[in-house]
Design goal:
13-stranded mixed beta sheet; single chain; 14-stranded mixed beta sheet; 2 domains; 339 residues; mainly beta; 7% helix
């Protein structure tokens, strides 16, 4: 009698191979569009998961390039993804809208779906920009800044600016923000858990985050920062007129120009205060007051359990805890604050 085992194994292999996702060629979409530019014209983008690359350069037109790619094991899934992620354009004299079609619900995919998508915008400096994404990253660069504040909103997408922006307003849920290469005139940042990092200077800064870190280098303006558990680290190259920082458990580490004078106070419930600025101490070293002249920098720093470190540029901090300034004759030069 002929054994049924080889036949059963062969049948199982054939059935298993039929269940394996078939390999299909990636589907792609590429298009370029050109629109007239005008002074103050707003370019508004709503791109969900697509990345956005913005390049600011002189010109009379707004150039848009769209690059999409998708591969899928399911028949028709790639085409559906391309249709739902191919931007639509609505242009007018003062506003250009670049949006994605409304997402259709109820589609179930068995198998794999691999996608990538990017929109590249080339804008003249007289343009204004508003962007909203879900997970798409946003990068901006250019030697000249765009007109007006650049407004960016994203859920988990990251933001990187290397020029092309003077005034920046960013709102994220968990996305990080990094500014480098060129200084900003102003920054407004609000996030739940996203970090913000300014490497090469900024004017006035407003930063609000729950658990994100705030790191700001080479500031020349005011600072208003609020966090829950996030740390705040900042340095200035010019004396500010006002510094307000409030945290719960986040630490505060600030470096001010050597010649600045202060008025205001720093206090903490259970954290430590370390400073090279002489002031009047109280509450067992948990409170320090400065009574400088009216033109002095106004300072208000408060934490619950976070430590506070406040020093003059080039001056070290005291080694112990509590509000204990270092005597002038005991100081030696120290390296700049690392951010």
């Amino acid at each position: 009698m002929r054994s049924a085992l080889p036949i059963a194994i062969a049948s199982a292999l054939i059935a298993g191979s039929a269940c394996q996702p078939s390999r299909r060629e990636p589907a792609t979409h590429h298009e370029t569009r050109s629109f007239p530019a005008a002074a103050g014209k707003v370019v508004s983008c709503s791109l969900r998961s697509l990345d956005l690359d913005v390049r600011v350069q002189a010109g009379e037109t707004i150039e848009v390039a769209v690059d999409l790619g998708v591969s899928s094991s399911a028949r028709g899934a790639a085409e559906r993804w391309l249709r739902s992620h191919t931007p639509t354009f609505r242009d007018g004299p003062s506003r250009l809208e670049i949006n994605l079609p409304r997402r259709r619900s109820g589609t179930v995919l068995f198998g794999y779906l691999r996608t990538h998508g990017r929109v590249t915008l080339t804008l003249p400096p007289q343009s204004q920009l508003e962007v909203e994404t879900s997970s798409g990253d946003i990068t901006i660069g250019g030697s000249q800044p765009l007109a007006g504040p650049v407004k960016l909103r994203t859920a988990s997408g990251d933001v990187e600016a290397r020029g092309g922006v003077a005034d920046l307003v960013v709102r994220t849920a968990s996305g990080d923000v990094e500014i480098r290469d060129r200084a900003l005139a102003s920054l407004e940042f609000r996030s739940a858990s996203g970090d913000v990092r300014v490497r090469d200077g900024c004017g006035n800064v407003i930063a609000e985050t729950s658990s994100g870190k705030v790191r700001l280098a080479r500031l020349v303006g005011t600072l208003a920062a609020t966090t829950s558990s996030g740390d705040v680290v900042a340095s200035w190259t010019e004396p500010p007129t006002r510094v307000v920082v409030a945290t719960s458990s986040g630490d505060v580490n600030l470096e001010l120009p050597a010649g600045v004078s202060l008025r205001g106070d720093v206090q903490t419930h259970s954290g430590g205060i370390h400073t090279s600025f002489e002031g009047r101490s109280g509450k067992r070293g948990r409170w320090l007051v400065w009574e400088g002249p009216a033109e002095a920098c106004s300072v208000k720093i408060s934490t619950s359990s976070g430590d506070v470190r406040l020093r003059r540029a080039g001056r070290p901090l005291p080694s112990g805890s509590g509000a204990t300034p270092i005597p002038t004759e005991a100081t030696t030069a120290s390296p700049p604050l690392e951010i």
